[in-house]
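Forum > Structural Biology > Help requests

Title: Can anyone predict the 3D structure of Lipoprotein?

Hi all, first post here. I have the sequence for Lipoprotein but no way to get a structure on my laptop. I'd be grateful if someone could post the structure tokens.
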Amino acid sequence: MKKCWLVLLMLFMSGCSSKLAYNNLDWLIYWYMDDYVELNDQQEAIFDKRLEQWIDWHRSEEMPRYIAHLNAVRDDLNENSLTESRLLSHYEKATAHWQRLRAEITPELANMAQKLSDEQVIRLFAALEKDNKESESSINEIDEKSPEEQANQRIEDLREDMSSRIGALTDEQKAIIDRFAPTFKRSSRLWLNYRRDLQQRARALFANRENNPDFVNDLTALMMNPEQYRSPEFLDVWNNNRTQHAKLAAEISQTLTAKQKRKLVAQIDDMISDLEDLLDD
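Reply #1:
Sure, ran it for you. Structure tokens for Lipoprotein below:
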């Protein structure tokens, strides 16, 4: 069931500019969920009702917050005030958006999870482990590369990510990225270990749910605060990379050409426009 709110986050935040996706959210979620768990008719009816309530809540309560936040980001961009501290503040606000969404839907998801059959639970965790193994395979491929190859790949990835946001990079911007690239630490294997640990904890809860009157509360607690199970090493890498990303983005923001700034502002305006249209629907 964790995958459900991952889909919601993906569509509400990363894809919130797509009105078509939002208005077909029920179909998209079932399409995505089908790889993990297939609900029976009764379960689907319950989920449909809850999903409608979540969407109504999200539209009325959260979308205005997103619009206000996007306006603030656009103002900072126009005023050349996207400093490291401002960017970190925006990161915190984005995290708060996610945490409110998680808090809204997790208790009901945990309650519905209690009613999954043993077969559904087995399929769910088998599908999750399949994802893990695919991720692990990709991580192993990177591990097989030389340190120089890994460093070059990191530079290439950072350049591609930045250019996808602002357009073709200037030589100065490429040099900034090249300078920051070595400051980032690899987190993929630490993330995979963390994910597997969470899944194992959830699996243990499901295995004993018939004898645990607090199953729903325990699963809710796990889903509401999974960050507590991040290892100290993972936390160190996570915090380092977030800080370095803010520093990199802040420095890049001071070198934006007029064309690059127009591109970013237009992207933000499009997202705001789509959200406002959805509010009016």
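The first helix runs from residue 2 to 14. Confidence is low (pLDDT under 50) at residues 1-17.
Shout if anything looks off.
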